[in-house]
Each structure stands twice: as C-alpha cells, then as structure tokens.
C-alpha cells in the first residue's frame, strides 16, 4: 500500500529526472510539489538512469510530490514499472521529520554506467529547482 497524505493522495519521493518541476509537470500535471526531502542510508547511482541502493551513512537528496491515481499511472509508465523499476516504500526526512513515501528503485541486474547526458541535464535542472546541493551529485563511472 502506498503512503498517503492527509488528502488521500500518495506521497512520492523523487530523486531523478522528476526533480525537474517542468519535467514532472509534463508527466504528472496533477502533482503538487510539497517540499525537499532526503533518503537516509541510501546513495544515488546511475545505470544509464538514476537508481538508489542501500548504503549506511549516505543520503539521497530529493523532494516530495503529492500525486493522485492518474499521476501514479503516468509515473509507472515513465519508470517502465514493473519491468525496469519497481515501486518501493521508503521513509524520508523533511525538515528532520520522518515521512513515509513511495519511490522507484531499479530492478536488479543492471550494471553501473554513466548517465544519459539529456537525462542528467534533467536531474541537474531538478537540483536547481529544489535548491539541492549539486556538489553532492556524484556520477559513478
């Protein structure tokens, strides 16, 4: 079951191209930007596309959106869920408060590699949109 907000919509943690408000607006016009958030004990990696992996002591920067049922369908399509990514329940921190949310995590079996340049541009745009620390965006080789 997906974590829900007080309005009954799902709280979605974005750490990838969906950080870009313009990109998210194209896929999910009904989504409402909520606030910056971070995912403790995970790190961001790239397998052409962004992914998260457990990593004690690391943190993934991101944001929360409130999304409805139609937006979840669009997010599943964007993430090629369940073939490439799967929905995952996570607990993020926003202003120090723990918040239950859902995100997408890549299915096993995809090697680490450099990100697609256009995709990485969207991720960087999102970091700027949410005033996240670009210096913490590490691109694996």
Explain what the structure shows.
- This protein is α+β, with helices and mostly antiparallel strands.
- It has 3 helices and 5 strands, in the order E-H-E-E-H-E-E-H.
- A 3-stranded antiparallel beta sheet has the order 1-3-2. It has a two-stranded antiparallel ribbon with strand order 4-5.
Q: Could you say which structural class the secondary elements and strand pairing correspond to? A: alpha+beta
The rounded distance between the terminal residues' Cα atoms is: 35 Å
What is the mean predicted local confidence, pLDDT?
Answer: 93
Number of helices: 3
Task: State the name of the first-level CATH class.
Answer: Alpha Beta
The number of distinct β-strands equals 5
Radius of gyration (CA) equals 14 Å
**Largest sheet data:** 3 strands, antiparallel
Series of H and E elements: EHEEHEEH
What is the general shape?
globular
Q: Can you list the strand order of the major beta sheet?
A: 1-3-2
Summarize this structure briefly.
The chain is of the alpha+beta class.
Layout of helices and strands:
Layout: E1 10-14, H1 21-27, E2 32-47, E3 49-67, H2 69-78, E4 85-94, E5 97-106, H3 117-129
Antiparallel strand pairs: 1-3, 2-3, 4-5
Give keywords.
single chain; 141 residues; alpha+beta; two-stranded antiparallel sheet; 3 helices; 5 strands; globular
């Amino acid at each position: 079951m997906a974590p829900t907000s007080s309005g009954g919509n799902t709280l979605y943690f974005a750490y990838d191209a969906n950080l870009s408000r313009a990109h998210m607006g194209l896929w999910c016009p009904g989504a409402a930007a909520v606030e910056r958030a971070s995912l403790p004990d995970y790190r961001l990696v790239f397998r052409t596309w962004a992914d998260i992996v457990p990593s004690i002591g690391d943190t993934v920067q991101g944001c929360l959106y409130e999304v409805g049922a139609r937006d979840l369908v669009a997010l599943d399509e964007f993430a090629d869920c369940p073939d490439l990514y799967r929905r995952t329940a996570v607990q993020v921190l926003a202003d120090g408060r723990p918040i239950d949310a859902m995100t997408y995590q890549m299915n096993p079996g995809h090697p680490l590699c450099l990100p697609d340049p256009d995709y990485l541009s969207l991720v960087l745009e999102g970091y700027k949109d949410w005033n996240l620390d670009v210096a913490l965006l590490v691109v694996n080789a």
